[in-house]
Amino acid sequence: MEITDIRIKRVEGENKLKAYASVTFDDSFVVHNIKVIEGNSGLFIAMPSRKTRSGEMKDVAHPINTDFREKMQNAILEKYNAEVSA
Q1: CA triplet 75, 81, 85: central angle to 5 degrees?
Q2: CA quadruple 67, 70, 74, 76: dihedral, nearest 10
Q3: Across the strands, what pairs with 15?
Q4: How sure is the predictor about 1, in pLDDT bands with cuts at 50, 70 and 90?
Q5: Are 34 and 17 in contact (CB under 8 A)?
Q6: Which pLDDT belongs to residue 86?
Q7: Which of 40, 41, 48, 63 can bridge 69 by disulfide, Cβ–Cβ 3.0-4.6 Å?
Q8: What's the rounded Cα separation, in Å, for the pair 57 and 51?
Q9: Contact, 48 vs 32, CB < 8 A?
Q10: Superkingdom of this entry's organism (predicted)?
Q11: How many Å apart are CA 12 and CA 2, to the nearest integer?
Q12: Which residues face 35 on adjacent strands?
């Protein structure tokens, strides 16, 4: 599966939340609302999630292996950093 498009929507303000990303795979499937967050160790992504009845947050969609998660995170953060620099 290849990432064929990444769109970044920056969030203004002094929050830890810096942007939302939409990622398209194989020009056929898109995942919206991936968060770009500033953590203590730098930027990272958080997958879209929803709150359950018990108050717990559960991912709606997520990579099932570490290699693909790293590939996706690197691509999103590269696109985010390019847009911040522009």
Answers
A1: 145
A2: 110
A3: none
A4: confident
A5: no
A6: 78
A7: 63
A8: 4
A9: yes
A10: Bacteria
A11: 30
A12: 20, 46
Structure tokens at 4: 């064929």
Q: Tell me which residue has tokens 């203590």.
A: 40
- What is the rounded distance in angstroms from the CA atom of residue 3 to the CA atom of residue 30? 10
Per-residue pLDDT, 42: 94
The tokens 């570490």 sit on which residue?
Answer: 66
What does the alpha-carbon distance between residue 56 and residue 31 come to, in Å, rounded to a whole number? 21
Alpha-carbon gap, residue 8 to 18, rounded angstroms? 10
φ, ψ for residue 3 (rounded to 5)? -80, 120
User: Tens of pLDDT along 25-77?
Assistant: 999 999 999 999 999 999 999 999 999 999 999 999 999 999 999 999 999 99
DSSP structure class, residue 64 = S
